[in-house]
Specification:
homodimer; alpha+beta; Arc Repressor Mutant, subunit A; Dna Ligase, domain 1; 2 domains; 3-stranded mixed sheet; two-stranded antiparallel ribbon; globular; DNA-binding
DNA sequence: GTACGTGCAAATGATTTGCGTTAAG
DNA sequence: CTTAACGCAAATCATTTGCACGTAC
């Protein structure tokens, strides 16, 4: 059960995602993996991202209607600009542990992971007020 | 500034969303509002959902590539099935307050809201093991 | 009165699907 | 071997856009 067939395509996708913190889209994963497996199809990448996310090997984050993925390694949190949709990682073991402690109290649930999203306006979208906003990158 | 023009369309959309905890899609909002304003266009609903979310009057949650919306009232958290994408609300003032306290420590950011997503498998997707999963609804 | 919002239809972009072929276990 | 995965092209679905007309302030 829970068998996973490690095809070349899946191995390369996981390899590319490993340690990657840029939240790549399917398009970006496709472009990267194509360098190793030139004949890979974009549909295969789509199918595998979905498959791997369902298996819990990677995490899906949806930003402004586009799926992005990250390896399911160290738990972390996101700062998301509600206007431009830029996303920034930040770590807080404190918060992660606190959340999981709360999750344990929830009856009848299988919780595998948690993450907290913080919403606001990034520096660029906020406009003038420099001292209170976070900065979008890339 | 930050003027919001309260057109009939926007009023009806906000009215439908008020107190609604079902995380409706644009399609669902459109169907509901059409009962009041039969001539409303789906494009108008799309435009307004985007507009209202940017203004911070509603919150967008993206699940499995589809945008869903909820009124931006009481802060709460989500339980999301990584397989079927079903989403369940749950409240924890404790967690919300804790998160916001952490957010205050972050320099140079304007944080307006936060929410924590818990990921796992719901009862249906987990299959046999009844005692450990949460139940999808709707 | 004027800028902004609306409705419609067409365009776009992301994601999925059908199907004959290929490869993992 | 046999079933699941692949590659490709076509299909689908969510969301956006251009434009002429209407309306909130």
């Amino acid at each position: 059960m829970a068998q996973i067939k490690y095809t070349n395509q899946r191995v390369e996708i996981l390899d590319f995602l490993k340690g990657n913190t840029t939240h790549p889209t399917v398009e970006q994963v496709y472009e990267a993996v194509k360098k190793k497996l030139s004949r890979i199809s974009k549909a295969t990448v789509y199918q595998n991202m979905k498959f791997l996310a369902e298996k819990g090997l990677i995490q899906e984050v949806n930003i402004k209607g586009v799926s992005r993925f990250e390896p399911n390694l160290e738990p972390h949190h996101h700062l998301i600009c509600r206007k431009c949709g830029k996303i920034f990682d930040f770590e807080s073991k404190e918060l992660t542990e606190y959340s999981l402690r709360i999750a344990k109290k929830l009856k009848g649930m299988t919780i595998e992971a948690s993450n907290t999203n913080f919403y606001g306006l990034c520096k660029k979208c906020k406009g003038g007020n420099k001292s209170f906003a976070f900065e979008p990158q890339n």
